[in-house]
Amino acid sequence: MSKDKNEYLTTGEFAKICGIPKHILFHYDQIKLFQPEIIKENGYRYYSFRQFDTFSIISALKRLGMPLKEIKKYMDERNPAKLVDLLEQKSNEVSKEIKKLKNTKREIDSLKELTENALSVDYNMIETAYHKSMKALCSTLMDNDNDNSYPNFLTELIAFRNNSNASMIDFLGASLTIDNIRDKRFDSFSYLYTKTNNADKKNNTLVRKEGWYLQVYYKGSYPRISEMYTEIMQYAKEHQINLGKNAYEEYLIFEIGTKNRDDYVTLILVEIEDDFSSKIKGPDNDQSLL
């Protein structure tokens, strides 16, 4: 018996060494996944130190998301060849999970950067800004001859997110024609778009050209964005600025960032015709260069 005391552990002692509650060992015993090495006539159960490695293997497989039923099957049939096959399978699964986690981290970091930038700018101030070209993955052409009701817009948005694999926290923008703005059709969008590293490898690519824009970080609810567009058009008229063909909205702070819709922040960019560059010194002297 002294030998038993030196080499064997009670259920509670073994559970403590493994860092688990006792009921897990009871459950594994019941399903015959991992059983005590000794069961005495009085029903007392004892585990050996040698079993710790086996339990560690089971724990590792469980952490990899392997169901207990599959773990038991492997443990009952295990051999070196099956181990290699299992490890190859789990290695592939882990690689896929790492890729997903990296994408999630990218989305989180991108949203964090967008939000921080949106908190550090001057709101509702119209200015000229020079922007480099930007490629983005875009939706199919929306019916920009008709105003999009919110249900229609939401339907387009959901379809676009599904087709582009964009999540709720991914960057989102929308384009509309300046003609529609002039006609006060502020909800008549042309495209939805999201920034991506491989936009040029996709079928639907939107290119926001390099050049000068009227820029506003609009803070307020979306139903009142029409008032800001009216101010932008008046600003262009007063300063004799010839506008281009397209405008862009990029949503920086939205539903995920605030409960108060008056705190939404949307970057509005309105194209200026190319001849504007001849009237100024150039982008190197402009603080708004992005």
How would you characterize the overall build of this protein?
The chain is of the alpha+beta class and 290 residues long. 41% of the residues lie in helices and 22% in strands. The radius of gyration is 31 Å and the shape is elongated. The chain is built from nine helices and eleven strands. The longest helix is centred in the middle third of the chain and has 40 residues, at 80-119. The protein has an eight-stranded antiparallel β-sheet. The chain has a three-stranded antiparallel β-sheet with strand order 1-3-2. It folds into three domains: 2-78, Multidrug-efflux Transporter Regulator, Chain: A, Domain 2, CATH 1.10.1660; 79-120; 121-285, Regulatory factor, effector binding domain (Multidrug-efflux Transporter 1 Regulator Bmrr, Chain A), CATH 3.20.80.10. InterPro entries: DNA-bd_dom_put_sf, MerR-type_HTH_dom, MerR_fam, Reg_factor_effector_dom_sf. Residues 8-77 form the HTH merR-type domain. Keywords: Coiled coil, DNA-binding.
Kindly summarize this structure in a few lines:
By secondary structure, the protein is of the alpha+beta class.
Q: What's the shape?
A: elongated
Structure annotation, total helices: 9
What is the percentage of strand-forming residues? 15-25%
CATH architecture of the largest domain: Alpha-Beta Barrel
Measured distance between first and last alpha carbons? 78 Å
What is the domain total for the residues? 3
SS-based class: alpha+beta
Low-pLDDT windows of residues: 282-290
Q: Can you tell me the CATH topology of the largest domain?
A: Multidrug-efflux Transporter 1 Regulator Bmrr, Chain A
Helix-strand string: HEHHEEHHHEEHEHEEEHEE
Cα gyration radius (Å)? 31 Å
Q: Strands of the biggest beta sheet: in what spatial order?
A: 4-9-11-10-6-7-5-8
Mean pLDDT: 86
